[in-house]
Amino acid sequence: MAGYARAQPATGTAADIGWNGKAQPPRYEGQIFPPWQHGENNDAVNKGFEFTVPEVDVMADFHGDLTDPKLVLYVGGNYYFAMAPLVAAFEQQNPQYKGRIFYVTIPPGMLVTAMKEGGTFTSGNMTFTARPDAYFAGLKKVEALITTGELTGPAVPYVTNNLTIMVPKGNPAHITGLADLGRPGLRLVMPNPAYEGIARQIQASLVKAGGAALEKQVYETGVANGTTILTHIHHRQTPLFLMQGLADAGITWKSEAVFQEQAGHPISDVPIPAALNTTAIYAGAMVKGAAHPDAAKAWLEFIHSPAALEIFERYDFKPYTGSTPGPAPAG
């Protein structure tokens, strides 16, 4: 097949086998790999010996000191980048929690699975338990978990978010809108419907833009022929794959593209018109049987305060006003 070199069995010495066929250090720019905030998302007072190796030894979605936390938050990963300033502002108002907040920022569905496992996680060779005091996701998801008894009401909505098409800086594939995502040969990175609620909103927007045929091209045909990569943690994997040159475009929340540009990464985005877009409402609630109920209540009060909303607005979130039409659950 033209342009394709089949891998040959290794026949050389150990010195000949390795990166790109030679024993040499990996040639990548380490700053493109998470975590991207240089420790700011860890409010531990004493960080001890710091051991983070990009792509090899890194836990980008677990934040803080596990020793004796006084507030544990399960936060849908759609705004992991806003958590550092949010925690700092909360601790300024509530200094008794300084350095005592632990939070997890993986997709909301995975957080529910973790709750059902008693808050026990295994990442690589490390297993630990951090039972949540409060949970944050889309409003409908939070309301559903209140109904089934995992959460204690009321639900507290605070901000909204919209979709966008994330692309590498300069938009080399010349994406102009959702319809372009059906272009043959275009390489896409898309949230996995099995793990990420955002995929449902994306599928609905694809149908609005190009009918069932466009949605099928992106999520069925593309997956089958390898031109669509499905993620597990869309909010980190999409820009990572774009910066590595593994994809040409992917749909994310607008806030994520804004953060990537603010961080100085070679990322841009193509806006999706309101008629084709989806608005998500983010909300939270206390977990039933929370170990730190007073702390959870304090965070839930803080999350829709002027101080918190000002931080969210830096990333293009909009304050929830109770009048957003047609809300859909956040990813």
UniProtKB/TrEMBL annotation:
It comes from the Bacteria. Coiled coil: none annotated. Pfam families: SBP_bac_11 (PF13531). This is Glycine/betaine ABC transporter substrate-binding protein. It comes from Acidocella aquatica.
